[in-house]
Amino acid sequence: MSQTRIDKRFAALKEEGRPGLVTFLTATDPNHETSLALLKGLPAAGADVIELGMPFSDPMADGPAIQAASLRALENGGCMRRTLDMVREFRESEDNTPIVLMGYYNPIYRYGPEAFIKDALGAGVDGLIVVDLPPEEEGEFALPATKAGLNFIYLTAPTTDDARLNRVLENASGFVYYVSIAGVTGTASADQTSVAKAVERLKRQTDLPIAVGFGIKTPEQAGAIGQVADASVVGTALINELTKHLDSDGNAKPKLIDNVLGMVSDLSQGVKNSRKTGDA
Amino acid sequence: MSKPNTFRAGPDQDGHFGIYGGRYVAETLMPLMLDLERAYDEAQNDPAFAEAMKGYFKSYVGRPSPLYFAERMTKHFGGAKIYFKREDLNHTGAHKINNCIGQILLAKRMGKTRIIAETGAGQHGVATATVCALFDLPCVIFMGAKDIERQAPNVFRMKMLGAEVRPVTAGAGTLKDAMNEAMRDWVATVDTTYYLIGTAAGPHPYPAMVRDFQCIIGDETKVQIMEEEGRLPDSIVACVGGGSNAIGTFHPFLDDTSVQIVGVEAAGLGVDTDKHAASLTGGAPGVLHGNRTYLLQDDDGQITEAHSISAGLDYPGIGPEHSWLKDVGRVEFVPVTDDEAVAAFQLCTKLEGIIPALESSHAIAHVGKMAKDLPKDHIIVMCMSGRGDKDIPTIADAIGETL
Questions:
Q1: Which of these, A10, A75, A23, A73, lies nearest to A52 by C-alpha position?
Q2: Residue of A62, A126, A138, A230 with catalytic role
Q3: ipTM score
Q4: Do B186 and B256 fall into the same domain?
Q5: Domain A5-272, CATH
């Protein structure tokens, strides 16, 4: 398989000797225009990899913040086609920052797995995270997507034991996403020591970069996790910031974009500083 | 699609019934699903497990439940002979307890110390709270805020049984949202917690396991109808929401090809409106809550809200085995509206002195439609899945009475 933007980005980060920042926002939250402006602003603000949520009516693995983001997006016209349109528009001016679409299987299944793979590649998507598609159900979509040139990102969790880890990593590409707590997004935070141990265990079984997510909220936390992993993923904290700048009708107030991107810059500074002091 | 040699062999080793079923869960839960599958396999091979279930069925649930000849209903419709399988006479008033006994014994075997469950009408919540009281386990029931409002007596029952009832306000506040919330709790508490799913749906092995625990309904029916009539019934009928009473009734008859099998879906205000819960008649295959099955959804794959006057049928999906049985043509699925169910509720109450659950009333309405045009020696067995005391306020409201 030829190198994807994800492979190239992680290779570049390794070269720079620093961990990456992966940001998560939901497409069309709070509306198409604002969401597209945020997306376009992310690379300059310091996002190394962009996760873009595909809105879904029943986000079972997500906490209240991302649930609300999904519903806001759906109320404002969010749908699979619009998400792909956003990526296409983003790619007109940005060719280096990888985009990973993240969501649940049903909208993809309804779209048609084959058609979706084709359209995602055409739009400039690089990777996919589908929360409710474990390796046991990879045949219909994950494997064909990988074969077509997309990185299907496998999730590992604190509950994934060693025996199972081999199976999970078997068809992994791009990077491995370590879900650092047993729980939904944006609730508890894992401590650096337990994450370090988990990443070490993963590194024994894979050469792929390890991104760690769930519960990382501040530049300090992003930095601490960055000391022991290849990237920190932040989602809920950005969405909470976005929510602060919505009026009572759910419309974006003028400072929304600046503030959310400002937070991305702070987080980026956090991961950039992390290896200066703590790199072993 | 080619006809299989047996309709009772599913699921395959990965939990699929044809293209349906499966294990569409987050990685955090996946190891637990494999544990559960192993534990259930072991339990099935342990005679002591079956013995324990049998004991509770007999002395706690009150099984076997009677097979009752509904003579006045039969006369009223003037056609086929109508029998009710009286799951409404079980302890806690519905078939739900069968499954709860099986799963709580399994949870105990697995060493779990906390039980969670979702509930719509509150019947499964009550049954779960009941077995948790019996087995002295803490219990949290997730229930949609809207359902809490329309099922107040059941909420109070659960609380008295010692359960914590946690209101779910996400979405429309009904069964689907309660299930989402239960899964969110579970993913954070996998080590200690057992999720006692109330219907034959969810990730493998739940659909097969719940079916197995509910098959007591059909197994008993088979013996009882042979005693009464000396032959198998011509038709069996049950209501389907998630479909656990139906699959338990149907499964033992699936390979008796002379038996017509009919599942009755909740058509709400009508399947041609957007206010119904008939996922097989009005939905399309999709993936939700751990399995692939027919779902009510829009063109973008967003799950739409179900509607039924009966909270127990108010769910946009259905157990995966029903989806498969529909596709292979072994089971017919028909819709019955809110109004038809309310009329059937009143009719059954008046004629038989049996107050049926609103869920079961859907099946009664269809039995009425069928029976009148059938010959007098045609035998219909219908699963009376639950009693209707819980629905009195809803019925009063529907017919404009103030309590």
A1: A23
A2: A62
A3: 0.95
A4: no
A5: 3.20.20.70
